[in-house]
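Notebook entry, structure prediction.
Reason for the run: the old model in the group folder had no record of what sequence produced it. Starting over properly, with the input documented here first.
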Amino acid sequence: MSRLRLTGWSPDGKGGPGPQVAAALLTGIALALAFPGADLGPVAFVALVPLLLAVEAATPRRAGALGYLAGFTFFGLHLAWIAEFLSWTGPVAWLAWGALCAVEACFVAAFFALVPATRRLGDWRVLLLPACWATLELLRAHVPIGGFPWGLLGVSQHGGGPLLPLARVVGVYGLGAVLVAVNLALARTLQALSRGLAAHRLPHSAGVARSRRWIAPAVSWPLLATHPGRPRRHHRGGLRQPRPRHRGARRCPRTAPAAGGVG
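New structure, fully documented this time:
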């Protein structure tokens, strides 16, 4: 904790502008790493945590500015192929790249502005903010000018993982919301641990106990939902059993036809 205080940063978000900007850049880079070409899908489970911690005690305006920086960093790296594809156009390629990144980053800024704006809702934000993320992703997939559905958080799990089968139920937008919920639960757990250590208490403080109510469902219910139970062996064996005959019924033997026929 002393090292964290020397750098001006803490998991409660009470840090100076330098660490907050670093957290925004770290979140943007981590999001880019979760997509092709690095394609490190598991990074998406923690990519938002640095900036979620940094904006917790910030104003919504400052949180939005930091979110814009994170979003521009993410889309700048994720959409670098545009400048390469349009390299024959010269400076126009970089103008197109910059304009697209600037527009798409606004949606990330709106989400992070909501983080401190909904502070009074307490633990309910673990449910509300993922829904806001999914709504913003759905919105930017359609606007402006038809939308640009690149960099959807749920697509980062295309290579597999425990949450990928969940996309059949909730779609790519719902899968992104689940990933945001996991990030929020982890951030709240780190905040509770930080408060407990600062007060010289054990990690099983009241804050940690409250965070456990959310991190367990956020992590476990997608795993349970994506792995439905298989039929047990005795059920499958039962389906193969022949249908029992009535106890009183008797099998009638066939009568052979007479050798001489009907005479």
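Summary: Residues 1-8, 205-209, 219-249, 258-263 have pLDDT under 50 and may be disordered.
The old model has been moved to the deprecated folder.
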